[in-house]
Design brief:
The chain is mostly helical and about 260 residues long. It is about 85% helix and about 0% strand.
């Protein structure tokens, strides 16, 4: 009886020794060790790599446009405020044009355009001159607004397309995961996990590129609107200056007639 019990123990121990290891243990051994973002990028398919590189470049462009436009708006806005305040004093149009010289900023171009129209009108300050000056100022404002807004359209494009580009990388990575499952004839986690991780990384990069682009675009749009308001104030000051010169001339003519 004891010999039978001992034989059973031996058979059981042998069976346990020869039994295959659990599936999860094999999967854990086969899983890649480097699942960091850089490691997933290096292990990704060429298409997924191209998507990630494109999204990284788009993010770099976004921050470059933000830095350049922020500096430009601050510099031009400060100069516009300074020149507009100078027009608020008792100043004639010819004097304002002489002060700015050959400057090329927006308010300087408004003053130069206004002075040029007054020169072409032969010094006759009347209602017709005011209308012509208003048309010139409107054209200059539109040109300066287009110039200051240059480069912001790319932010809108990045914000609108980056999530879909990341989604394309996600779909491609998941397709590769299913292809790996089909070729290996197994549903092992070691086959599925890397492709899914790479796919999710592409989606994350798409959001990283899109969200700042949308926020920065909205911020720059508000800054550009404020800059346009400054140009509008400068144009209004110039129209007031022309109107004061016209009224002053009519006052002098009336006094001379008396």
């Amino acid at each position: 009886m004891q010999s039978k019990v001992g034989l059973r123990h031996v058979i059981l121990a042998t069976a346990l020794t020869l039994a295959p290891a659990p599936a999860f243990a094999i999967d854990e051994a086969l899983l890649p060790r480097n699942l960091s973002p850089w490691g997933m990028f290096l292990g990704a398919d060429i298409v997924v790599k191209a998507v990630m590189i494109g999204l990284a470049i788009a993010s770099l462009v976004t921050w470059t446009v933000w830095l350049a436009k922020t500096i430009e708006l601050r510099r031009k806005g400060t100069l516009a405020v300074k020149r507009t305040r100078a027009l608020e004093g008792r100043m004639k149009l010819a004097e304002a044009a002489e002060r700015i010289g050959d400057a090329h900023d927006a308010v300087a171009q408004l003053i130069q355009s206004c002075a040029k129209e007054a020169e072409l009108s032969g010094g006759v300050v009347d209602d017709g001159l005011q209308e012509r000056v208003a048309l010139r100022l409107e054209r200059v404002e539109a040109a300066m607004s287009r110039q200051i807004a240059r480069g912001t359209g790319v932010l809108a494009t990045i914000g609108a397309t980056a999530p879909f580009v990341g989604l394309f990388g996600t779909v491609w990575g998941i397709m590769n995961s299913f292809i790996g499952i089909s070729e290996s004839h197994t549903t092992s986690l070691a086959v599925v996990a890397p492709g899914i991780a790479e796919a999710l990384l592409a989606t994350a990069l798409g959001l990283v590129a899109a969200i700042p682009a949308v926020v920065i675009y909205n911020h720059l749009v508000r800054g550009i609107a404020n800059y346009r308001a400054l140009l509008g104030d400068a144009s209004a000051q110039l129209m007031l200056l022309v109107s004061r010169q016209r009224d002053h001339r009519e006052f002098r003519l009336a006094r001379a007639a008396e």
